Amino acid sequence: MENKKEMRTWLDDLNLNHPLVIAGPCSAETEEQVLKIAHELKDTDVSYFRAGIWKPRTRPGMFEGVGALGLKWLQKVKAETGMKICTEVANAAHVKLALEHDVDLLWIGARSTVSPFIMQEIADALEGTDKPVLIKNPVNPDLALWLGGIERIYKAGVKNIGAIHRGFSTYEKTKYRNNPEWQLAIEFQNKYPDIPLINDPSHITGKRDMIFDVSQTALDLNFDGLMIETHYDPENAWSDAAQQVTPSSLIQIMKDLKIRKETDPEAEYNKSLDNLRAQIDVIDNQIIDLLGKRMKAADGIGALKKSKNVAVLQSKRWNEILGKMVIEGESQGLSEEFILKMFKAIHQESINHQEKIING
Questions:
Q1: For residue 108, which of 32, 56, 42 has the smallest C-alpha distance?
Q2: What pLDDT, in 10s, does the model give residues 62-95?
Q3: What domains can be seen in the chain, in order of their start residue?
Q4: Which residues, 6+ apart, have CB-to-CB distance to 359 below 8 Å?
Q5: For the whole model, what pTM was predicted?
Q6: Under 8 Å CB-to-CB from 252, ≥6 apart: which residues?
Q7: 302-324: pLDDT as tens digits
């Protein structure tokens, strides 16, 4: 993807003095619902009003969107509020209808991005459009697949491109609906700093009370904006009720978010420092999460040892671990002294966990 700098033009042309905000309901349900939410957001920092018209659902029989009828409602939003409008497209027919109804921005969802065949169909339908097109990360944590989808859209002559980070599916239960895997987003930024990157805290969290924290992390990591699902009555929304916030809550979130502004000669230094510190915070949380998982495995070992009346401390096994970790640590530039101290502390905590199990 040569000349990637032109991908940022559409965002720069908005002349915003704040991060881009895309907001609106997960699904367009009724004309009244769409217009009510839009009017509550029209005089805020929201630049694009979003609403799902076609909703991909895993199981048949679930609400799959109102279809093309909803595009008329979005046109009314633009006419009555002056806000730009956007929706998700998942095939060539969706693209054709969205463009015919002058939708200002289109995004491609995570279930579509995962398929090169679908991405090529959409790319062909979008060929040469000057509308901004945002590509969500695929459901699985595969950076190459995400970048491949973006390249297909770019090769179709679409220059106004952006990416949406909405988290990744995982078989493990975590506090997130979709694990953010921040390191993948950071790697994306490092590879393509000139492609605008938008965070979708609604799909990452799946819970409205976590929206603010994830949004702040994204802004600390220099994301260009946020896509937040908003509904005037989220508890009774027809889809994704738990992750939508009210317009008044969104307005408060936008007020409370700390934006790193360049206000002095040290701005670039401070911006870089804040970004690196945010990366460290992300990694620290991952370390704690991994240590928690390690101790759960230790609990399982403790239960097995108890059933066989085996001693907690197994010196041979411990020395094998220590030797391997010293070698691994050296390959990562970590001193032997540090590795020994760290793993002795981890080992002691593991022993404590096993002794609790064995002693009942």
A1: 56
A2: 777 899 999 999 999 999 999 999 999 999 999 9
A3: 4-256 (3.20.20.70), 268-358 (1.20.59.10)
A4: none
A5: 0.81
A6: none
A7: 898 888 888 887 888 888 888 89
